[in-house]
Write a structure and sequence with these properties.
The complex is a heterodimer of chains A (about 725) and B (about 280). Chain A has about 725 residues and is α+β, with helices and mostly antiparallel strands. A nine-stranded antiparallel beta sheet of chain A has the order 9-10-11-12-17-16-13-15-14. Chain A starts with 6 loop residues before the first helix and ends with a helix. Chain B is of the alpha/beta class. In chain B, about 40% of the residues lie in helices and about 20% in strands. Chain B has helices spanning about 20-30, 45-60, 75-85, 110-115, 145-160, 185-210, 215, 235-240, 255-260, 265-270, and strands at about 5-10, 35-40, 65-70, 90-95, 95, 105, 120-125, 135-140, 165-170, 220-230, 245-250, 275-280. Chain B folds into two domains: about 1-130, HUPs (Rossmann fold, 3-Layer(aba) Sandwich); about 135-245, HUPs (Rossmann fold, 3-Layer(aba) Sandwich), CATH 3.40.50. In chain B, helix 3 (about 75-85) runs parallel beside helix 4 (about 110-115). Chain B is built from ten helices and twelve strands. Classes of the chains: A alpha+beta (about 725), B alpha/beta (about 280).
């Protein structure tokens, strides 16, 4: 537990940095706000109002730390539909109601809502939104405004627009299109220029500055009217007095209509998903490693949305790109969000007339680039590398979203994912029977450190991931967590991706998060539960699990050789009494040093036969010794006492070490030899080191900890113990 | 306060599992030094009696005391009435294995009996002809008046079967933890609250353990494990993870129709037997 800090002092120290990062963020928020609002068919100033109201309210009431709020990309797709069907005045009413629903979600603690959607379906939906933004704005960027009833038509007409541009005759249009293309190129190449001074101002602001400069150049230097066609100039930017005095008329007439409520629900759904996903992503960036209170944030976002709706703004959501800029520029608490809003107010007060000098194609180039980023081919490539079935989910969701709408799109995505899961498992019952079962067990292992051990049964997919998440969220990130899937028949991609996030989060905050028990999923068809595992692994050739790849790198670090394949040649283990009543099946994930004297491996063995058969997997270390030693077994608690009694072994007390004799069972046949072998030094070694089961068959040692597979951290511990034990014995 | 098992009952059907079931039951009768009642639902016949006697023959020379009971009627009623008539205090029932899966559940008849029986019940998942040593016993440590009796019974059974390890699982329901986890601060609070609850449960179980005669506790490793999770379900999951050989549980309190619709406590175990289960009244 960290001591209570002097909060006010900390806050004041961080203030200048937060003001600065708030300023930088506002530089992006200004053009983006204008653009996003226009893309949604709302008045451009609505985007700025959204950012101002959101920034002020959420920074005061919110529960996250370094997030920035304002108008969101994802919502453009929904708002566009809502505004076209309801008209802008009724759309404000819908926005207000969706804000109310968001507050309600916050109170119902539905911060977990976003976890119920398969990640490929969400990707598909986001890509569709990207295409919606890109498709519509692409034409404006090239100064060829068109109006089509279907979103798909906009996409299909992109080649015609390009052809059109190449045959432009009118100078105004040529200039407009040229500005658009130039702005787009700035967006594309800006990240590639690593110039310190250039990077001080974000790319969207460069576009704004350059285009305003361009307009001033013509006015004052060239003394000519701006050559860009006036239809392609930003218009309708009111000054501050106008915004305050002329609030938009909000109409509640359509409140009884069905499509009003579907709009409200669509807005709420997308706003909450976008915000929750962003908060989750931004938490990973937080340099102070804090955990956001998502439910509190949802309430704040809802209230801000209500407020924003009343003064002519759009839905307030948490936005990832601006938040990451905030973190990169030293934002450390919510005050940066507040200052970003204040700077936006200043911009409007001071420069609202200058904003009319921005050409539309320049603004739209920013949006086309954002849209492209959401639907970029890289995403498709990444999803394909995860699995073909993910690609199906992705495209089905994408097409359904484009063709019909967002809510239908995401629903279709969820259903497709579920059907694919049923097909992969060839079982419907697996899901139906076990859906409501509390399939996650978590407890603190009492011996050998305070590990949190989590076992998952049956199946773990987007349908019941929230149960696992709830358990994992109850562990603070500086602890060690081991998630065991060996009782779980099916793990889906959504879960694997989320666990990967946990892994990163734990690693950053000094904890350790490991997934075990997946090695036998998938290709190993001997296993009765052998289904397929879906892992986000880049190299499909080797098909190793994350644990295996980590062991592989560990092998390199310790200059050991690694072999993941099953090895049935296990005769070297049979002389150990531990295996007398057990049937060894195979060893795998084998780590060995150069002269093969040190061997660490996962082992699968069984006790009993046929129906009483119980399969055990564990991790063991085998050490070849240079000379003969006494045959003995060292064990705590005496679980194995009985088995060894068969072999004529008995507990041997060591003189002058009553504590050692109390804590350990030392068993063996030749008591004198063992007593001689257990020197004071060796006894001290065992007393001062973590407990392991150690067995000697005369020429070799077998060392292991728990009767389950070891996590990579535990493997390191075992290796270290084995090496030091070898030294202690040979000395 | 300890009720030793004087009369053990088992329902016999002439199924492929017959021999294994009877072997398990007779072994238990010998361990507990109790009389074995083999209850068959159906007509008495020479042939059936012969079959049973041949199976039992090897045990008779070890002084097995047994009785064959034949009675016609509905299986559930027959077994329940026979249990009362012969004052049976441990009834053995077999589980069904889900096809192609290493999963066991209780058939509908066995389930009805379990719900209505007045005596202790042992549910066997994989009866075998050869004896399999029982090593590890897991028992619930719920906050319930019945728990003391159950834990005592677990020690008694472990002693008789020669098990050398007992884990007492204290299931702590999520509802006991009043702190909701939202951020770092509430997480810290929740962690402290959990520690406190675990300590409280540990000391409660300790006081129960103190009341158990030391003769039962000799040579047995005792461990306690607090678990935050769904009552009745997480202990089964734990027993599976800890590879227990026997799970000892309290009998359920009176249940209504709704309780069965929304399974809790022991009903979870009945649909998904993790290991052999002993239910103590």
């Amino acid at each position: 537990m960290s001591p209570k800090k002097n909060n006010i002092k900390q806050f004041l120290i961080g203030l200048p940095k937060n003001i600065f990062s708030g300023f930088v963020v506002s530089l992006i928020a200004l053009p983006l706000g204008l653009g996003l609002a226009m893309a949604s068919d709302a008045p451009p100033i609505a985007g700025i109002i959204t950012a101002i109201v959101g920034g002020i309210l959420v920074s005061i009431l919110g529960g996250s730390h370094v997030t920035i709020t304002g108008p969101g990309n994802g919502l453009v797709g929904v708002l566009l539909v809502v505004i076209t069907t309801l008209g802008i005045n009724d759309a404000y009413a819908a926005i207000i109601f969706s804000g109310g629903l968001l507050v309600l979600l916050g109170f119902l603690r539905m911060g977990k809502l976003a976890d119920f959607f398969p990640s490929s379906a969400i990707q598909g939906m986001l890509a569709a939104i990207g295409l919606i933004i890109l498709g519509k704005q692409f034409h404006i960027m090239l100064a060829n405004k068109i109006n089509r009833p279907q979103i798909i038509d906009y996409l299909l007409e992109i080649p015609y627009t390009i052809n059109e541009v190449l045959h432009f005759r009118e100078v105004g249009l040529i200039y407009a299109a040229a500005i658009g293309v130039l702005s787009f190129l700035i967006m594309v190449f800006y990240p590639k220029l690593r110039n310190k001074y250039l990077q001080m101002i974000p790319a969207p602001m460069w576009i704004v500055i350059l285009s305003i400069g361009f307009s001033y150049y013509f006015e004052f230097v060239a003394q000519q009217p701006n050559p860009i066609d006036p239809i392609y100039m930003l218009s309708g930017i009111p000054d501050m007095n106008e915004i305050v005095s002329k609030l938009p008329r909000i109409s509640f007439v359509k409140i009884g209509q069905a499509n009003f409520w579907t709009s409200v629900i669509a807005l709420t759904l997308i706003a909450s998903i976008e915000s929750l996903l962003s908060i989750k992503a931004v938490d990973k960036l937080d340099p102070e490693k804090r955990r956001s209170n998502v439910n509190k944030d949802l309430k704040a976002l809802g209230l801000a949305t209500i407020g924003s709706g009343f003064v002519g703004g759009l839905n307030v959501v948490t936005v990832i790109a601006r938040s990451s800029v905030n973190v990169n520029n030293g934002g450390s608490n919510r005050s940066s969000n507040f200052f970003h809003a204040i700077f936006l107010v200043l911009f409007i007060v001071l420069f609202s007339t200058q904003l009319a000098r921005i050409p539309l194609p320049a603004l739209m180039a920013i949006l086309v680039f954002t849209g492209y980023k959401l639907a970029s081919p890289d995403i498709v490539k990444k999803i394909f590398s995860i699995g073909k079935e993910q690609l199906i989910i992705f495209f089905v969701t994408l097409i359904a979203t484009l063709k019909i709408g967002l809510i239908t799109g995401i629903s279709v995505g969820v259903i497709t994912t579920f059907i694919i899961h049923i097909i992969i498992n060839k079982s419907f019952g697996l899901f139906v029977r076990n859906l409501l079962k509390p399939n996650v067990l978590m407890y603190k292992e009492k011996e050998n450190g305070d590990n949190y051990y989590v076992s998952v049964k049956h199946f773990c997919s987007f349908l019941n991931f929230y149960k696992l998440k709830q358990k994992l969220d109850a562990v603070s990130e500086e602890n060690d967590v081991i998630v065991d899937f060996s009782l779980c028949e099916f793990v889906d991609h959504t879960v694997m991706e989320n666990l990967n996030n946990y892994q990163q989060l734990f690693a950053k905050r000094g904890g350790n998060f490991e997934v075990i028990g997946l090695d036998m999923h998938g290709t190993d068809s001997e296993h009765p539960f052998a289904l397929r595992r879906i892992l986000p692994i880049p190299n499909l050739l080797t098909n190793l699990t994350k644990r295996q790849t980590t062991i592989e790198t560990l092998a390199k670090d310790f200059s050991l050789s690694y072999d993941a394949t099953h090895d049935k040649n296990v005769s070297f283990l049979e002389s150990f009494i531990f295996f007398k009543t057990k049937q060894i099946d195979h060893i795998y994930n084998r780590l060995s040093d150069k002269d093969e004297s040190l061997n660490l491996f996962d082992i699968e063995f069984s006790e009993g036969e046929f129906i009483a058969k119980e399969v055990v997997r564990t991790t063991m270390l085998h050490i070849k010794l240079e000379h003969e030693i006494a045959t003995f077994t060292l064990d705590r608690e005496g679980f194995l006492e009985r088995i060894y009694a068969f072999a004529g072994f008995k507990d041997i007390p060591i003189q002058n070490h009553s504590d050692f004799s109390k804590r350990f069972y030392l068993l063996g046949e030749d008591a004198d030899a063992i007593k001689k072998f257990f020197t004071d030094e060796l006894v001290h070694f065992f007393e001062s080191n973590p407990y392991y089961h150690v067995e000697s068959n005369g020429s070799c040692l077998l060392v292991f900890g728990k009767e389950r597979l070891a996590s990579v951290k535990e493997i390191k511990g075992l290796l270290d113990f084995g090496k030091r034990l070898k030294v202690a014995i040979t000395r | 306060m300890l009720k030793p098992f004087k009369h053990i009952g088992i329902g016999v059907a002439f199924s492929p599992n017959l021999k294994a079931n009877i072997y398990e039951a007779t072994r238990l009768s010998l361990f507990f030094e109790s009389k074995l009642y083999l209850i068959h639902v159906g007509e008495r016949s020479q042939e059936k009696e012969e079959t049973l006697k041949t199976i039992l023959a090897p045990f008779v020379k070890n002084n097995l005391n047994y009785e064959l009971v034949f009675q016609t009627g509905k299986p559930v009623d027959v077994i329940l009435s026979a249990t009362e008539k012969h004052q049976i205090d441990l009834l053995i029932l077999g589980a069904v294995q889900r096809e192609n899966f290493l999963k066991y559940y209780l058939g509908s008849i066995a389930r009805k009996i379990t719900r209505n029986a007045k005596c202790a019940i042992l549910l066997l998942i994989k009866p075998s002809v050869e004896r399999i040593q029982c090593e590890h016993v897991v028992v619930n440590g719920l906050k319930d008046p019945k728990t003391k009796q159950t834990i005592t019974a677990a020690f008694y059974v472990s002693k008789q079967l020669g098990a050398n390890r007992i884990t007492i699982v204290e299931e702590i329901g999520q509802e006991e933890l009043t702190v909701k986890i939202d951020d770092d601060k509430s997480l810290r609070k929740a962690t402290i609250a959990k520690e406190r609850l675990s300590l409280r449960e540990d000391s409660r179980v300790k006081s129960i353990l103190d009341g158990i005669p030391t003769t039962y506790k000799n040579n047995i490793t005792i461990k306690t494990q607090p678990i935050f999770g769904k009552r009745g379900y997480s202990i089964g999951h734990y027993a599976q993870v800890a590879r227990a050989d026997l799970l000892v549980m309290n009998a359920p309190n009176k249940m209504s129709f709704l309780d069965r619709l929304f399974p809790h406590d022991i009903e979870h175990i009945l649909t998904e037997l993790p290991t052999d289960v002993l239910i103590i009244q």
